Structure formats: structure tokens, C-alpha cells
Amino acid sequence: MLSEKEKLTQIIDLGIEIAQYKDIDLVLERILTLARKFVNAEAGSVYIKEGDNLRFSNSQNEVLSGQLPPGKKLVYSSFLVPVNCKSIAGHVASTGEMLNIADVYELPASTSYSFDKGYDELSNYRTRSMLTFPLKTGHGGVIGVLQLINARDREGNTVPFSKEDEPFVMHFAGNAAVAIERAQMTRAIIMRVIKMAELRDPKETGAHVNRVAAYAVEIYEEWASRRGMPADEIERDRDILRMGSMLHDVGKVAVSDSILKKPARLDQAEFEIMKQHTVLGARLFADKYSEFDEAAAVIALNHHERWDGNGYPGHVEVASGKPLPGYEDDNGKARGKKGLEIPAFGRVVAIADVYDALSSKRSYKEAWDESKVLDNLRREAGRQFDPEMVEAFFSCVDVIRNIAKRYPD
User: Fold this and answer.
1) What is the pLDDT of residues 330-344, one digit of tens each?
2) Which residues, other chains included, contact 178 with Cβ-Cβ below 8 Å and sequence gap of 6+?
3) In 201-327, alpha helices (H)
4) Residues in CB range of 283: below 8 A, 6 or more apart
5) How far is residue 218's CA from residue 225's CA, in Å, rounded to a whole number?
6) With contact defined as beta carbons under 8 Å apart, do 212 and 243 qualify?
7) Would you put residue 96 in left (φ > 0), alpha (ψ -120 to 50) or beta?
8) What share of the chain is helix, strand, coil (3-state, %, to 5)?
9) Do 359 and 367 contact (CB within 8 A), yes or no?
């Protein structure tokens, strides 16, 4: 049993850890993981406030995850809960007060809120104890709700959440709210850049870049885990990959409208101009002040390279766009990067970007059927795409499909 001092030290350490994450999706995931770990909860969810509603934004459940094949992730759907006193999460968001419930199936009839048993019935799960607390900003506003489910004792039995842990959890909630606010601000800045790009290129929408970035993270995590990369390294990479991937096509802001908005396929001369968006995008991040800048530059420059060496822009100097010495082909142009010459972030975003492009409607084409898209990825493994990363894609394709639903056009 930890002493109060040890618990406080642990909570402070957890606050420091979540402060290392920059992307909002990964911040929420990590907050939930760390909070569950602290109180030994087998499940939990995070809700983020959007106007008069709470959006169900992340969910974890060790029991249900344990029923999946090895390496598979729990798939969940996002939905809205009104901020009112009818639901447990809504009540906490409305009042700003924590609720510690020993058994949600035994709520007194006098309570204004109730527990929806539908999810338990659908998943054959039994929710008992629940600790739900508000995520408050420094000025007292509620920006979300964290809900922890089924505390466990040392023998693994479900027990009520400890009253003694409540002040420590609220301290953690304060740190979590600060991390969420900061990550939301970072995402908002990135999305403003995307909106600027969307004014130039109608295809460069917020939904598209969010899908591509989320796909890339899932594929990369599966690929990196298979290669035995350390977990902490994968976590760090996921964070910067998620943000950097959103800006993969930002260089298109410097391409002419007559090309970007052409309602048909480009001719060869136009395509040569379009290719320059890779170099132009990388050039925006030439002054590297952080790992994010470096990742964004790498992704922008390399996401159109091909595994077989027939991609673009090839081995070029970012500042000038000219071939690097010794990398010219017979025509004096830059030789395409091949195989492992292409950075991993570029290889994984290439798959995510093509999958989303083929799956989406464009001015010059209809969306492809999923079977046709998947067949294309299989055929292009070892030609356009890293074959190991294509394998990783198919291992997490259920999660990929779920992401597509989360960010519809």
C-alpha cells in the first residue's frame, strides 16, 4: 500500500509524463492509460466537451481487449452525450463535481442521473464501480470528463474506487486538463494551416488530413512493434508522426490554382509542376526547431517516393530542388529514393495517403470500392509500397475502417 507521499509523487510524475505529448488524440489516450494505472481500473473512457455536448473520444477495456486476437485493438465509435444531469458523464460535466459510484446498477431511485446498460448488454460486459471526474481548466471551466470503470484489488476482484484516492485523482485531472488545452491549441494551429491549404486545394480537407494522419499512426505502431522497437520510442514517434502527417501536402499552397483546381487529370507538364509541392512543403520546415519540424519536413518531402525507386522528388537538395551530387539519373534529374532510402515516416504516409485518396470521391473520379482499394495495396506491395508496412496495414485494417467513420467528409 502506497503512502500519501508516494501517491503524490506518483501523480506528479504522471503529470510530467502527459506533458511530453503534443497531439490531442495521443494525449487523451495517454491520460486514460495513466489514470487507469494509478487506480488499477480495468476500463475507462474520455469525453471532450463540444458546446452543449460531450464527445466520447477514447475508450479502453482490458477485459474486452483480452478477448481479441493478439495484436488487435478494441474498436469504438465516437458519439455525443448531452451536458445535463441525465447521464453520469453529463452530470459531472454540468456540476463540475466528481461521482464515485460503488455499483452503477444499484443507483438510488432519487438520483437525477442513470446508467445506460446498453453497452454492457451489447458487449457482454458488466460495469460495476465507476469513478467519474471533471477535467477543469485553470479558470474553472470543464473541458471534458474522465470516467474510470471497475477498480480491482490485488487479487483482481472488482471493488469500489477508494475514497482516499479521490484528491490525488483530482490533482491528476488538473494536469490532464492543462495538457488537453495545450494539445487542442496545437491541433487548432495545424488545422488553420490546413484550412489555408483547403482554400487553394479543395481535396486538402480537415477530414482527409485527420484520416491520413490517424491511419499512418496505426500502421506505424503495428510495423514498429513487429520489428521489436522499444515501446517508449514508438510512443514518441506516434506523437510527432500524428502531427507531421497532417501537413504532408502543405506545399500545395505554392502551386497554381489552374493546376490544383483542375477538374480533370493533369497533363505531364502540369504534373511536373505539381510534384514540386513535396520540396516546397519540406522547405517550410527547413528551420528545424523541434522533432515535429523535422518529421513534417521528412513526410512532406518523401510521401510520394516509391519502394521501387520510381517516385518523386528523389534525392534533391531541399533549398534548391536540384539533384544532390552523385544522384542524377541519365537525364540529369534526381534519382528516386528506393527501398530503405525512403525514411519510415515517408513510407507509412505514402500508404495512408493513397488508401484515403482511392477511398474518397474526387472531382475527376468516384470513390473506389474497398475491395478494389485493398487489392491495389496488395499488388503494389514491393513496388510502390514497403511490403512490411503493407502487411502492418492489413493487420490493423479494422481500426483503419473505424478511423474512416470517425472523420467523414
Assistant:
1) 888 999 999 999 999
2) 19, 137, 138
3) 206-226, 231-245, 257-260, 268-274, 277-284, 291-302
4) 251, 318, 319
5) 11
6) no
7) left
8) 50, 15, 35
9) yes
d(CA 228, CA 94): 45
| Cα dihedral 225, 231, 235, 240 sign | negative
What does residue 393 show for φ and ψ, rounded to 5 degrees? -55, -50
Q: What is the pLDDT of residue 153?
A: 95
pLDDT on residue 1 = 65
**373 CB contacts (<8 Å, ≥6 apart)?**
355, 358, 359
- pLDDT, greater one: 259 or 95: 95
DSSP symbol at 65: H
Task: Please state, as a whole number, how many other Cβ atoms lie within 10 Å of the Cβ of residue 159.
Answer: 15
pLDDT for residue 293: 93
Q: Which three cell numbers stand for residue 398?
A: 479494422
pTM across the whole model: 0.89
What are the tens digits of pLDDT across the range 18-64? 989 999 999 999 999 999 999 999 999 999 999 999 999 999 999 99
Domain ranges of the chain: 4-182, 201-406
Task: Spell out the CATH class of 4-182.
Answer: alpha beta
Q: How far is CA 25 from CA 32, 61, 301, in A?
A: 11, 17, 25
Q: Domain spanning 201-406: which superfamily?
A: Hypothetical protein af1432 (1.10.3210.10)
CB 87 within 8 A of CB 81: yes
